[in-house]
Amino acid sequence: MRKNLLEIYNILFKKFGEQHWWPAETEFEVIVGAILTQAAAWKNVELAIENLRVENLLNPEGIYKTKESKLKKLIRPAGYFNAKARKLKEFVNFLFENYDGNLKLMLNQPHEKLRNELLSIWGIGPETADSIVLYAANKPSFVVDAYTKRIFSRIGLVDDDINYEDLKKFFEENLPRNVRLYNEFHALLVRLGKEYCKTKPLCDECPVKEVCEGPN
DNA sequence: GGCCAGGACACCA
DNA sequence: TGGTGTCATGGC
């Protein structure tokens, strides 16, 4: 199995090259992006992040001090702005209450502890937590998403009703525990999903068609 | 003009 | 534990 996963990784890397994830300038920007991209197109998230950047709010203090009503207007393009404005607030409130606003202190914990802590914050579920652990804290927590599930159930390596934790475990138990690998693999799977494995799959041109059983 | 994006939560059985 | 409804914008 390890061989199969690394084979798929190598095919994707050869096809697409480095994806340079996460597309952000700071750790905090990774977190903001991870929250805003929940069930949203990244293109729309970029518009929202740019609005925050112009207002100099891409930092914990900025979000902490800004009224939720103002945040809603700024992040509107990312969709679900009522919920997401609250989620940003919930995160920075936690950060200031527990770490005096020191993000590095929070991120510099053993990764299981950090993950559990993130999951305790309202609005941060498993995928967002793992994205933060991997792409902001640089700790080896494999991120799976809807694309990952769709791709690997079509390939036939996992059941199509597999839950998040089991799918995550599938990767972590069959890959070397390596941050760079986790980083690149997830990014490549998103790239593959976007371009070839949407609801209408482009199987004829798919880079991993040799190992795929096809859509079902 | 419809479909759907790099999910999470509330509520229900 | 698991299934379903809800949240919302903008690109294609």
SSE layout:
Layout: H1 2-16, H2 27-36, H3 42-54, H4 60-65, H5 68-75, H6 81-99, H7 103-107, H8 111-119, H9 126-135, H10 146-155, H11 164-173, H12 179-196
This protein binds a DNA duplex (13 and 12 nucleotides) through residues 33-35, 37-45, 47-48, 76-84, 87, 122-128, 131, 143, 145-148, 163, 186-187, 189-190, 193-194, 198-199.
Quick one: overall form?
globular
Radius of gyration: 18 Å
Order of helices and strands: HHHHHHHHHHHH
SS-based class: mainly alpha
What is the total number of structural domains? Answer: 2
Outline the low-pLDDT stretches: none
- Overall number of strands: 0
From the N-terminal CA to the C-terminal CA, the straight-line distance is 22 Å
Count of separate DSSP helical elements: 12
Q: Within the CATH hierarchy, at the fold level, what is the topology of the largest domain?
A: Endonuclease III, domain 1
Fourth CATH level, the homologous superfamily of the largest domain: Hypothetical protein, domain 2
Average residue-wise pLDDT = 95
- Helical coverage, percent range: 55-70%
CATH architecture of the largest domain: Orthogonal Bundle
**Major sheet description:** none
> What is the level 1 CATH name of the largest domain?
Mainly Alpha
**Strand fraction:** under 5%
